[in-house]
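Minutes, project check-in

Agenda point 3 was the complex the collaborators sent over. CS summarized: two entities, 223 residues total, and the question is how they sit relative to each other. Sequences were read into the notes so everyone works from the same version.
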Amino acid sequence: KNEVEQSPQNLTAQEGEFITINCSYSVGISALHWLQQHPGGGIVSLFMLSSGKKKHGRLIATINIQEKHSSLHITASHPRDSAVYICAVYSNTGNQFYFGTGTSLTVIP
Amino acid sequence: DAGVIQSPRHEVTEMGQEVTLRCKPISGHDYLFWYRQTMMRGLELLIYFNNNVPIDDSGMPEDRFSAKMPNASFSTLKIQPSEPRDSAVYFCASSLRTVTQPQHFGDGTRLSIL
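CS then shared the predicted structure for the full assembly.
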């Protein structure tokens, strides 16, 4: 059983489309991270959330603690957004991190 | 401002050899994390330190793996003896003050065990 489930696993979009990636988790958490990994391997932390909503440029992340669900939205998608997006949660018991398997996004010009 | 620095970037070695991966966190960061990434298992947290003290090593796969942080500016991940199934990309990351702060990742070490 995976403590963190992401959907979809793969996503292809046309440039300019609005994109949503979902993350559901089954453990109590202190924080949730969204990570971005471009082809070639570098990992960047996009957001850390413990409640509510955060926005950075065209990226918006939301979390609903009661429903144990987070979404990452990309507005006006661009080919440079093509990457794998990984959801990770920090459990509020046991000092442990759990990771989703990632969503592979391809944005076509 | 220097980010997290990992070395080497690539390592190819034969099965049975000792492998040492190195990481220099961002100055002033209190937390250091070691991750492993494979196609089969995705990103896995191996161990993390707070102020040089290991907090959670439950992700370390077996006794062949060990990690140390002798001071605030340096950490090593050692595999002895290495096996082909250890082939992966190993990432180091650091964060400031609390474990829930955004993490800054190094470029990773691509390890191939033949």
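Noted in discussion: DSSP finds no helices and eleven strands in chain B.
Follow-up: revisit at the next meeting once the mutant set is ready.
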